[in-house]
Amino acid sequence: MSHAELEASETPPSGGDAPAAVRKRPKPGERRVQILQALATMLEQPGAERITTAALAARLDVSEAALYRHFASKAQMFEGLIEFIEQTVFTLINQITEREPDGPAQAARIATMLVQFAEKNPGMTRVMVGDALVFENERLQQRMNQFFDKIEASLRQSLRPPADASATPTVEAQVRASVLTAFIVGRLQRFARSGFKRMPSEHLEASLARVL
Predict the structure, then answer these.
(1) pLDDT top residue among 107 and 47
(2) Residue 51 exposure: Cα atoms within 13 Å on the Cβ side
(3) 96-140 pLDDT, tens digit each
(4) I want to staple 177 with a disulfide (CB 3.0 to 4.6 A). Which of 17, 133, 156, 193 is the partner?
């Protein structure tokens, strides 16, 4: 997307018959999306250091003040990315649980979806595993910890005894869900810390077969 789309102003026509160029004003909410897209893109750079609001503003060719018109702090920008991750992942999990019968196959589908999401969104992966949150507000890391707690809970439900849909997950289901969650997190961490060179989907089907 061009800088002209990001920095909008309405300029009246200058002298002469030809009107001056008018820069398009973003639609409501569009600038917020552009800021989050830019932040996610910057996080995709292997070995990227802590991203400052000054660097983010420079990438968008706007002032830092323009950023703060849409987000009260950089922490809110990261929260915007986390909300996207949560909404996307848990919507997909709901779709999987509605279509796939309970059991190892459902759990494997959830794990595969998470890995595919990470590969398509490497910048988001750095947020998910906490690498991008090291120097940020502590509540952001706590929120991502809660995200993986919810993932583990979904996997426990998938692996509960099939005979009784209302049954409390057994100790075995709890252990398998815990191991599978740790496996997923480990794959995502390796992906992020290898500079996105080691794909988390590497031998995924065979690995899930061993775990499940």
Answers:
(1) 107
(2) 30
(3) 999 999 899 999 999 999 999 999 999 999 999 999 998 899 999
(4) 156
Measured CA to CA, the distance from residue 9 to residue 22 in angstroms comes to: 7
60-75: per-residue pLDDT in tens?
999 999 999 999 999 9
Instruction: Kindly state the percentage of the chain with pLDDT values over 70.
Output: 82
Question: Which amino acid is residue 115, in one-letter code?
Answer: V
Dist. CA 51–CA 47, nearest whole Å: 11
Do residues 160 and 168 lie in contact, with contact meaning Cβ atoms separated by under 8 Å?
Answer: yes
Q: Which two tokens stand for residue 167?
A: 């049954």
- Between CA 18 and CA 14 the distance in angstroms is 8
Residue type for position 203: H
Which H or E run includes 190? helix 171-193
CB-CB neighbours of 164 under 10 Å: 8
